[in-house]
Amino acid sequence: MSGGKLEVVRAGALTTLQDLGRFGHAYLGVPRSGALDQPAHRLANRLVGNHAGAATLETTLTGVAVRISQAVIVAVTGAPAPVRVNGRPAAWAEAIHLPAGALLDVGVPAVGVRSYVAISGGVTVPPVLGSRSTDLLSGLGPAPLRDGDILPLGEKLGRPLHADTVVWQAPPQELVLPVLLGPRDDWFTTTAVKTLASARFSVSPQSNRIALRMDGPTLERAVHREMPSEGMVLGAIQVPPDGKPVVFLADSPTTGGYPVIGVVPENRLSAAAQAGPGLGVRFAPVRRRKQS
What we know:
Strand order of the largest sheet: 12-19-16-17-14-13-20
Oligomer: single chain
Number of helices: 2
Structural class: mainly beta
Shape: elongated
């Protein structure tokens, strides 16, 4: 039995399909991708009875509006935003029973950047390399949604989870990211490392799913020779020639030729998904303990 169809009525500034990501292909130069705010993605799926790997809609700044051909359960999480069904207010971060043909409209977030829309059964476009995620860097996976797109839905799998059983925190008013220094912190001056630890940066409007780019003070290099390209990990803080740190996110390249002054632990990156332009950012470096 078909799970019905989803029609995109209003695609918004940027709405993509995302799941848990595309693993095991870094050696081919394929980024992981997947939902930037993984806890929000997982919660939305739990609320509608999906498994964690079901594809959700990840919106950016201006929300999305969709119409679904048959009755489903939907949930909206991530950046808190107004939710309406056929023009009437509906709950955020709760399971919503959507009748066949109803219009679900997710508006502009009050705070944060990205909201997540889960639909019972998930969006079942064909997977590419094991994932239905849109990868903005390589172009793998489905294209960003456009008005008029029609997407297939899967069959409803499980029972929805009542929202009273979950707790959700609003996006922060200032983003504080812990940093494990290295592997190339010795390529920077002592002053640069102190600046990373003490200065206040802000999120650049040039940020996207590939990287969270910083405005603010520059980090001066002590070593100025060229560096051969080396492997990059999620959360790596790369410093290009302009000295402004760049935090790599889900769609970032798997290699890079600029030194990495430190790495933000992956389990602390979900807050970066909700960091809008101008938000203050502070880094809290810690040095790895040497093995005895």
